[in-house]
Amino acid sequence: MSRRRLIGAGLAAVATGLLARDAVAPHRTPASMATAPPPGLRPPPAKPSPSPSPSPSLAPLSRPVYTLKEFRQVVPGPDFPPDAVALTIDDGPHPAWTPEVLRLLDRYHVPATFCLIGNQILGHEAVARSVVAAGHHVANHTWSHPAQLSTMAPEHVQQELDRAQEKIHDATGHTPTIFRAPGGTCSPAVFGAAAKRGMIPVNWDRDPRDWTKPGTSAITNKLLAATAGDILLCHDGGGDRSQTCAALRTVIPALQARGLQFVLLGAQP
Prior knowledge:
Shape: globular
Radius of gyration: 31 Å
Number of strands: 7
Structural class: alpha/beta
Strand content: 5-15%
């Protein structure tokens, strides 16, 4: 056999051996190729999570704040005017009632503090942003508004506050420095969780219980009893708030006519 035929026969044998190996051995891709995505399909870098709260921690309180005088005792700042009252609005944002309340406040040039529930912001982020865009303040009213917050384990309390804090910050760009407990009920765990996130627990001393829908007249009469230094409570979420809005249309100009002025609680960070 010639030298050329010998070389050709050898190459054919090698090729036959390689084909036989591939027929019986599973195909293995090098690890570097298996983990690399195709060009143009590389996943984007993970979005960093927003800071739960840039506010420094505080010393826990032993009771909530109920009046403007008490608020200034724990939050440094200039004295409130002697004829001041503060309006707080709970349980929003709501796609219908929050804008209605905002229009009413704008009409009378009244600032307010909106205590937002974290899971109510879901799908209503634009409404939450409209609150701060109008110059109002936002407060933390927990993630899911658990009525039993004061009896919950400390770690669960912290989760309620932290999730709401993160969502409010993510939606509005502002981090609350005020905390409003559902029903105003607190515990050492609640005080500790709020302080850890730099928040002051604030309650109220004028509550018309408008969330029970007692009638526009009942809500109006309760709020008209307000005096200088009071913190007023109303709601823009949790159901039909038409009675609340109707009452505020009477109450706000009436209190202003008596010489009371509405103020914000604290400074928006």
